[in-house]
Amino acid sequence: MTTPFPVPAPPGPDTPVVDAQPYGFPLDLATTALVLIDMQRDFVEPGGFGESLGNDVAQLAGVVPVLKGVLEAARAAGLLVVHTREGHLPDLSDCPPAKLLRGKPSARIGDPGPNGRILVRGEKGHDIVDDLYPVDGEPVVDKPGKGAFYATGFGDLLRERGITRLVVTGVTTEVCVHTTVREANDRGYECLVLSDCVGSYFPAFQQVGLEMVAAQGGIFGWTAPAAAFLAALAAASAPALSTT
After folding, report:
1. Catalytic (active site) residue 38
2. Is 142 a catalytic residue?
3. Cis (ω within 30 of 0) for the bond into 84?
């Protein structure tokens, strides 16, 4: 009988550990994936859905250069990289009315925007920002909801690749990042959220959202700055010392 949950392998004595809260996060490259949540023009750049709701998209600007460095390092280390995009079919048949009716009447999901119809798959605004754009071979998970697991093949993708741990980045911290981490936690995945690679339109939400992840001994997962992750990644990627 197989377990329905992924079972993270116990870290070996030489497994690098990320200096994280509430305690160290083992970094095994073979079973870990870097996940970039919804780094899309509609959320990050002016004229998209995020700005249409009255948000200052500049609040998310600081995430991009830090995350770009993490992404480049992860690719160099051979880590699995997965991107997600929130958006809907052109006929909006996968967008529930409760979600569709939010926002100002002139700037709802499906309405015209500077980068095409807002949060509609195939439109420019729905796609990922240039600095973090997927390269060949990197899976992109299109999702109709906040979490990456709902109505997608994300879980199947992780199981097929033997992934048990997720390093989670992206936007926004308290919405799509939090939802994905909570979904992953319920499914048995261990999640590390990189604190300066996630962003919110609201500074207070950013702070509290991160605190909620690691509270009570890591109720949803771990948090750490990008520098701590990169240090462990460098150690995990270093060639083993010859014993001959």
Report:
1. yes
2. no
3. no
